[in-house]
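Two proteins, back to back. First:
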Amino acid sequence: MSHDVTAAFPAFPTPTPLCGPLRQPRQMLAEQTYDGHKSIHDDATAGDLGLRAGPIEGPTHFSQFDPLLFQLFGQRWFESGCISSHYQNMVVEGEEVRAFVQPPAAGESVARIWAEKSDGTPVLSGTASVGDVPDEAHEIPQRIARLRPATGLVINRDLKVGQRGAQPEQVSMDFEQHMGDYYPFTLADKLRVITELSPWYTPEGGPASPWGRAIVPIEMISVLLGSSGDRAGLKGRGPAVGLFAGQQIRLINGPVLVGQAYDLEREIIALSESKRTESVWVRTQVFEAGTRTLVAEMILNGATLKASYAKYEEEARALGLAT
């Protein structure tokens, strides 16, 4: 794609709601490993769990919203934007997805967002905004507020709300930096296949951005923060297979910059359960390294599939829980 490097994206037509083109997001996590095993993004592992193929990671779809939200909010989207999403149905490579944004009504500040496959199957739904909007106006905090107390946890029974990450984490993302076993690719790899490429993400166009440097795409903020998550120790028993069930990324003093070091602090803010999963909701705060300047926050609903934990039935019985 080629266009003026002083603009984030080429303009799309502006119907209401705003909608982007159909895109085919790419699978980048087929080789992802943790706890000594492949992840749900591996076709064989997904098949063992009853899925037809390894799904594409949820935040991959955030890139399709960036041109629409930039069109709506301008460069503030990368400075103080918030995208908050509940993931509804998995997408596999080869399927087409379209993003939609319903701009805020007069007197309101929060946009509704959703994505659909080409056949209308919902992929995600949520909210987006810029600036000083109360957190509770967004999809993920609203879902947390509606959670029932978790009384039957097995996999996550050792975790507590308020529990903080075990050790400090410092992270950064350069173009050719391999992000580890959990994210076995580089930013350069992603930019070659990202659904919406902005020159502001690139080595060539970054210096022409409003911040004079290349910025990390919002979907890759999830990669940056997830790359060191094993250091925090905020995970349940395993080995077991998990997935992202919902996610909020909020920029406060953004954007997140390529090559910049950041300090991370994590805290469990909720625990929940469903028929098939147990969830840990973790807030990760992103500070400019060596300071208390809060740059961004992420809330992630990391759900673990009960059926993937070999000892689930045995331990549930031992705990006196019906299964």
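And the second protein:
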Amino acid sequence: MNIRMLALVLPLTAPLSGHAGSVEELLAGYQRAGAGPFRAEQGEKLLVQPGQGEANAEGNRCADCHTTDPRQPGKHLKTNKPIQPLAPVANPERLQDADKVEKWFLRNCKGTLGRPCTPQEKGDFLTFLIQLR
């Protein structure tokens, strides 16, 4: 592969591999994976819908730990460990590290939804979080 081709391909793969530096880059990566358009109202539904699957026999929701208002701090359901607000408007450090965003999507989607989140769901959820004021 020549340098010119590599320069064209690398920017397309970076957001999906967790090397993106911003929410906008993550969203662009999800779009390149076939997702979009993103809808904040769908992201909000993900926050409050009961989970499924064997990993979540109790039907817990994301909001059980993160609250129905992502601008507020939450608390882990089992450990009672405090959780900083999800919304960047209330917690400017949130969503700044793409690797962390992907790590928490993987862990929390599997634990709550019983499966990994799709690029569409991730994009909808991030869109919901960044539009909060």
